[in-house]
Amino acid sequence: MLVDLIQNTLDGLTAGAAYALLAIGFTLIFGVLRRINLSYGPAIMLGCYAATWFHVQFQVGLLVLAALTLAATVLAGAYVERLCFAPHRDRSAIAAMVASFAIWMQLEELATLVLPNHLYAFPALYEGGPLSLGPFTLRAEALVMFAVTVLACLALQRLLYRSRFGLSVRAVIDQPVAARLVGINLPWVFVRVFAVASALGAVAGYLIVASAGQVTPMLGMWSTLKGMLAMMLGGLGSLPGAIVGGLALGLIEAHSQWFFGPQVRDLTAYFLLFALLALRPSGLWTTPRHG
Amino acid sequence: MLELERVSRHFGGVRAVDGLDLKVRDGEIVGLIGPNGSGKSTTVNLVTGLFSLTSGQIRFRGQDIAPLPTHMRLQGGIARTFQNIRLFGQLTVWQNLWVAQNSPADRAKRGFFSRWLGGQSGVRDEIVSLLEFSGLAHKQDELASNLAFGEQRRLELARAMATKPKLLLLDEPAAGMNSEEIGQLRERILKLRERGLTILLVEHVMELVMGVTDRIAVLNFGQKIAEGTPAEIQKDAAVRKAYLGGDAAAAEGGS
């Protein structure tokens, strides 16, 4: 019983690490643009598909595969920004969201056009079985996932609080008009934010696909849903909140799967989200914000 | 330096600015006054590119700037402060100035090669001197949102200066200030002129406008109703009527 509880917590935290990465990407885009990017997940899916295509054609190595996923996802993310957020910047938020939905469909069609089977194998990071730590088991992918997420968060923290680009991003989040008026090039900031967010998503996507050992077009919707859910759990627009929300979502899923069975897993998460939105609309983690 | 020619901006049926002609020469301090809603802030927003023109022309140093996006105008040498302070609250005082250094000269300094040749040091020196100019040197690591009101206004001015402007637009910089602070602000504005800046000052506080400007233009209902030296404006009948008839409180220096 206790062993199971701890095992579930471990599993939940590692799944949550990936959710946290997705939520951070979502939050960055939402913070800067005040727009929901539904195509965030599909861009990641396309990145993974591009890598899979190379894998199918040329049998490339793991590192090359990771690099390809990253590059293709960043490109797809920038494409989404150019096509549906740049033209609607000063216009309706709904128009941008609908456009991002249209691009979602477009990216899915594109992926299934190039790789028409529903499912493709994706090479795992580590071929051996799960590692055992006393009574607990942990997959190598899960360990990597957790470590990479921690590193990515630290790198992002440094980027946002130390680099001039990061400070400009926070200036734009805080005071978009004033940021324009001190000569910050907003379109350029937006593209780079999309690139950073997509890179984080690509890391999450690659690790998820590698630990699942397969890639399907559903990855797009799955990433968008998990990322958005985790972002809303943590509180819209807060980066620490995104991390907390991601981990919380992972834990909730792992434990509810154990308690209620796998069919009810997602339902529990959605139910909790509704409860949270009703009782504490600002999310689990609220930082004082202004503007 | 700055020329507005028959500049208009209509919002639906409202003529916020209507056929305005205004010239600001190099090194001048020009005041722009008028009752609330007379089009002063709209004029500032037109010059900085936050609003687009309905008709007319705006030339900055001889160049038509109407097609340029805001950040390009800034890089061209126009800067402004806000009536309602808009600092980057979650950034420190130092960082507020650092992210504002977007002039072409500063961009060149941050270029790939000069970065390795120590070009960054000049950028730091400028921030230090701006902090001293604004009396904020001891607060450089404070978050901007934690500053007192007067300090925030000084930081906004310093941030505008960090973009290395040739033309500075001040939108009601004295709002909410006491007499002593207004005196300090006047000193600071005069010092900026000595450094070669041209200034367009939008202001309600007559104590400041009359004491610091070379020339004043008066707006009412989006049109210029008078222009002249501070002494001439004080005597102008149309101006008195606009202020006392339109909004008596404004003439007293309220906002």
How is this structure best described in words?
The complex is a heterodimer of chains A (291) and B (255). Chain A is mainly alpha-helical and 291 residues long. Chain A has eleven helices and four strands; from the N terminus they run H-H-H-H-E-E-E-H-H-H-H-E-H-H-H. Chain A has a single domain (2-279), classed as ABC transporter involved in vitamin B12 uptake, BtuC (Orthogonal Bundle). Helix content of chain A is 75%, strand content 3%. In chain A, the strands form two sheets. Chain A has a two-stranded antiparallel ribbon. Chain A is globular. Chain A starts with a helix and ends in a 12-residue tail after the last helix. Chain B is α/β, with parallel strands linked by helices and 255 residues long. Chain B has two domains: 1-77 and 165-255, Rossmann fold; 90-163, no CATH class. Helix content of chain B is 41%, strand content 24%. Chain B has twelve helices and ten strands. A six-stranded mixed beta sheet of chain B has the order 6-7-8-3-9-10, with helices on both faces. Chain B has a four-stranded antiparallel beta sheet with strand order 2-1-4-5, with helices on one face. In chain B, helix 6 (120-133) packs antiparallel against helix 7 and helix 8 runs parallel beside helix 9. The two termini of chain B are 29 Å apart. Chain A binds chain B through residues 164, 167-168, 170-171, 174-175, 177-186, 290-291, and chain B through 48, 50, 70-71, 74-75, 79-80, 82, 86-91, 95-96, 98-100, 102-103, 110, 145, 159-160, 162-163.
